[in-house]
Amino acid sequence: MCVACAIGTAAAETGNWPVPPQNNVAGCSGGGSGRDIGAPLQVQVRDQFGPYRGDQVVMVSDLTGMPLVTLACDGPLDQIRLRPGSYRVQAFVGDVRSPEVAVNVPASGASVALTITPAPNQPFDSLNID
Predict the structure, then answer these.
(1) What is the DSSP secondary structure assignment for residue 99, as one 8-state letter?
(2) Is the peptide bond before 118 cis (omega within 30 degrees of 0)?
(3) Which of 101, 26, 22, 97 has the alpha carbon at shortest distance from 56?
(4) For a tag on the chain, would you pick the N or C end, based on fewer CB atoms within 10 A?
(5) Tens digits of per-residue pLDDT, 43-90?
(6) Domain 19-119 grouped into CATH 3.30.1490.190
(7) Is there a contact between 34 and 96 (Cβ–Cβ < 8 Å)?
(8) What is the pLDDT of residues 89-112, one digit of tens each?
């Protein structure tokens, strides 16, 4: 079997995908491998207290709003592999979300910090009852 042929075929097949296949294990640890296809987009999810470390979902869409990648992790740093280009990125924790941010991802990669406001799981404040 021709190993170079198989690699070339696999690369040609993934060339038609809207986004490269994701390595969810490495993506949720904020790392990646040189073997992963695509440019890395590092996404840090924060709240008012600092990096968020629980069940956040990061969604990347194209500029028209069509979702391309959704990654659910429980650490503060996610890595999503994308083709170089412009995207919209947003983070969710339950029904609370960050503002949507436009980001340009060059071939060398990019990073963005998303802030969830208000912080999820805020204690009930009985002083705000009407």
Answers:
(1) P
(2) yes
(3) 97
(4) C
(5) 998 888 888 777 788 999 999 988 888 888 887 788 888 888 999 999
(6) no
(7) no
(8) 999 888 888 999 999 999 888 999
* Annotated domain spans of the chain: 19-119
What is the chain's length?
Answer: 130
126 vs 48, which has greater pLDDT? Answer: 48
In the chain, what is the straight-line distance between the N-terminal and C-terminal CA atoms, in Å? 74
Two tokens, residue 66: 């069509």
Give per-residue burial for 56-68: e unless 16+ CB within 10 Å, then b: bbbbbbeeeeeeb
The CA radius of gyration of the chain, in Å to the nearest whole number, is 17
Query: Is the full-model pTM beyond 0.85?
Result: no
